[in-house]
Amino acid sequence: MLRVDDEFIVNVRYQCSAAVPVTINVLGYILIVIMSDVFSLSDCDVVGFDLDHTLCRYHLLETSRLIYDSFARYLVEHKGYDKELLTLTPDRWDFCFKGLVMDLEDGHFIKLAEDGTVMRAARGTKSLSTEEIVQHYGKKQEWQHFNSLKGSFTRSAKYYFYDNYFDLPGALLSARVVDQMLQSGNQRILDFWKDMMSAIDHNYNTSAFKENTGMYFPSVKKDPGKYLQPCSEAVKAWLRSLKNAGKVLLLITSSHSDYCRLVCEHILGKDFEELFEVVITNALKPGFFSQIPEQRPFRTLVNDEESTEGLPSLDKPGWYSQGNWAHLHELLKTMTGQSEPQVVYFGDSVRSDVFPASCYGNWETVLISEELEGEGAQTSDMKSKDADAEPLEKKGKYDSKNMKTPSAPSEQWGSYFVDVCKGLEEEEEEGSLKYTWCCHSINTYSTIAIPSIEAIAALPLDYKFSRFLPNKPRTTGYYPRPPESLLRMSENSPRE
Length: 496
What we know:
This protein has 496 residues and is an alpha/beta fold. It has 16 helices and 25 strands. It has an 8-stranded mixed β-sheet with strand order 16-19-15-14-6-20-21-24, sandwiched between helices. Strands 11-10-9-8-12 form a 5-stranded antiparallel β-sheet. The chain has a two-stranded antiparallel sheet with strand order 1-2.
């Protein structure tokens, strides 16, 4: 551990494998530290998992349609919005794209480069031309709130960042609402947002499962197999091998305990609790990692009801609700016998999982990015894509054959990882390739990125993954292979 002044601490994870020098600038100090260029699960004392879209993979087509319908019906039936929102053709799903930011002040949806440049934009569902982007954002095409978003991923009354599949159908719905508002001459875009937040709360709040309210939970309870993909035998065996190797296994999810139990029993079996020493539900990430114990104490559960009194500390393994990183860290020190246990956390959200676990918890992080499958990272022994795996009788009222899965590249938005950024200057007529802000965030906050747990389940626990590092090519850190768009760009643009 290196201390810089009294305010900054740079933590460096040492491994037994080959190491490389990494240059870090902190408060004007140039530090050269030695950091491992590989990552191995065998070096970890604790292995933690998010649940939704991490341990549990969803049938994205069916789930996206359910979420959209859940939100849209609420707006129509409870808030009086136009019934046209309930009609949706398959081509509309191309709009759904992880990493979009909605500017709530003007109804723009924007795709950002790593430096905050607006690469693409739409007002409602209608794409803006380069000229319109420059007219709105200036010659440099800079989004004014980028510095606020990039430093902490905090939510704001001025914008909304879509980085998980539970939110994403709401982007399409919100864009269609903006379309309707503009057609009617209503320019007050913010007016509808409180209704959209009410739709989300109506379907996802912690009591909705028990009370069978909304549309989402009743549908999943009625037919879990339509939406949830059971873990393969390979993944189950891999989890058992981690436990047999002496690793402490954690499950940390923002889902409430009743929904967590339904999901885990379906994907892992009714004995799933035997796999995990600690289960934490309603964790309310990212606050779980960033808030102090007094703000977010752990609570016990009785019949899925949280205790009214918070716990002063976490003294033993078990199933808890809410909580904070600091108290969990103390428990893990006791459980592992290590003063600084090495922890790795698997999650699908940069904002809720990877960023806070890395920055506040100093944990290794594995990002689950299904976008890798959409760009050629699917291995030959993995299962077929969601559309192929879905039984015909469960494809619902939409034509799934023509519906884009949310993890695939978009005609309207391009690649999740790189894109052409066009300007009005003559020399930039063809545009220049740039890394997206999402790609930059993956490189910055993830140890490695994989398309699914299935992709690594057959590997030995001591397998050495190449990790993301500041002085390594951007393609380093992806397993089993980098996305096609990133490979093509790296051939012409090696990392500085």
